[in-house]
DNA sequence: CTGAAAGCGCTTACAG
DNA sequence: CTGAAAGCGCTTACAG
């Protein structure tokens, strides 16, 4: 029971003393609650400003003793790619960091090959009582339907990994997909000469007209338009994501046309790499996405030339933290938080932090 | 005065009740203080384990009400380069993040062109009462003298930006300098052909035999040895760091020998870039270090081809956090924390986070 | 070796 | 609209 000797230290007590009111009244002003006369409020506000008082966060949290619950809705790690391991990791790290501050994080998984599972999980979330939601809004229609319900219930939501504009989300944390595609275009322009042919490949079961992969494609195409590059560009969508289907589709194109470079718009580049390696065509240049073990292996073997990575773990981490800062610290949150566009090669992958 | 309804929630009170002792005794066991009989201690430990009790960090900090002071000793931003702005920024960010937890961070600056200033500041730090120190041990002899005194006083110290082995530091946070030079070697091998000539340049007033720049040089040379590259390598140390001196020294070499690529081992690459630009020799390839405005400008203009960056801001941030985690959370700290080796080009600098 | 009680700086019912 | 007091989950002297 050491007493606070530094009496000049400012707290609610000191403010109350100076304002000649009770501590509770100071607290009301501090937390912007009503039930304080304008006059008293003004007086207290003045003293707060004068003393440059900053509340003690720990004391506040300890006393308020309340618990916030966040729900996370992201794809489960699929058979074709374990990309989503990383955001999940980030979410877990953030969760354990703020656990002591009374935040509980529940994670819900959907199957990115099945829109229905998204909606099913969304319903589960709505049934419970969450104060905040983080989601990967992979399916536009289903996502909008979900977040509109959140909006009505006044629950803030954060988009990660891909964005939907104009949907009143608290913020977006993830790549600038268009720019990411644009950069891929630029990289590729280094690797090929004027007349060489490019094959662009989207591999995803669900590719509706709003699918986020298409934004990378737009950026990619834009690069060639803006810079007046005349390379032939062939594009295919592969909606069956198992290896055999990918193999078959790619083989089809490659037998018909001579392709010099392939750009795969997501982490499933390893399927294409596998095909190229198996058929001894690894002279065809290959660019794709994401720091996954399989991809790195093909990078090491020179089958994949570049991988573009966008800090998936950080996306999960920052998603939770954005909600936390907004809800608990009521601090301002950046509406857009774009990840860096990292270029991974055989040379620097060892030091990369995903 | 809401009461805790979830009585199953575990706290010291509950542990004390079960162990039939006072809360103070539980606290003694929890904090490993003496004055508890072996028998009681064992009993309490058993209950703690059984209940999987985790102390509430906020309550602990609030109650203990103590303040820790950290000292940071880093170079001041110099005229030749503002590299050190970034670590400073990181230190400040970390400091403001943990200010509420009773951590005070004082920053001391030395002149990296003057060893004496290092020692002077070190003395100032030792005179005060710090619980932890973060330093850039740029001058080996002076640094060792300083940290030995810290060691005696039982003050933990963290090295950032460059390391000194076997000095009982709490940890090192910064680049793997050798690997960083090695990577530069690899990059350069892409840019030149067999017989072309390389100029390696160290620009620093103080280059004693232990200077950290020399480790980059070692790594760089190692790349060429290991890979049996036979390129000629000329090396110069420039100890006068103003532009005119750099210009003169470089000019001297370039008039005598035909050089194809220049590798500058630190952020002062912009001086060389300026010279190359002014003399219309920007066809000579140039590689250097650090994401500084001046460097980026030369990158944009194709005078600099690559910049290697190693998250200087993060170094400062993590330095503080390492001390904090060790001292406050008594959590384990990684002995070595190597930064990624980022390759910055004209194409991706816009999205880089320093 | 052990315990009762005050205190850290806030918030929360409750009474007026 | 305002205040007195208990409480959040710990730690800290102090008394025994």
UniProtKB/TrEMBL annotation, chains A, B:
Record Pfam families: LacI (PF00356), Peripla_BP_4 (PF13407)
InterPro entries: HTH_LacI (IPR000843), Lambda_DNA-bd_dom_sf (IPR010982), Peripla_BP_I (IPR028082), SBP_2_dom (IPR025997)
Cited PROSITE patterns: HTH_LACI_2
SMART domains linked to this entry: HTH_LACI
Limits of the HTH lacI-type domain: 10-64
GO molecular function, one term: DNA-binding transcription factor activity
Keyword terms: DNA-binding, Transcription, Transcription regulation
Top-level taxonomic group: Bacteria
PANTHER family, alphabetized: LACI-FAMILY TRANSCRIPTION REGULATOR (PTHR30146:SF144), LACI-RELATED TRANSCRIPTIONAL REPRESSOR (PTHR30146)
The name this protein goes by in its record: LacI family DNA-binding transcriptional regulator
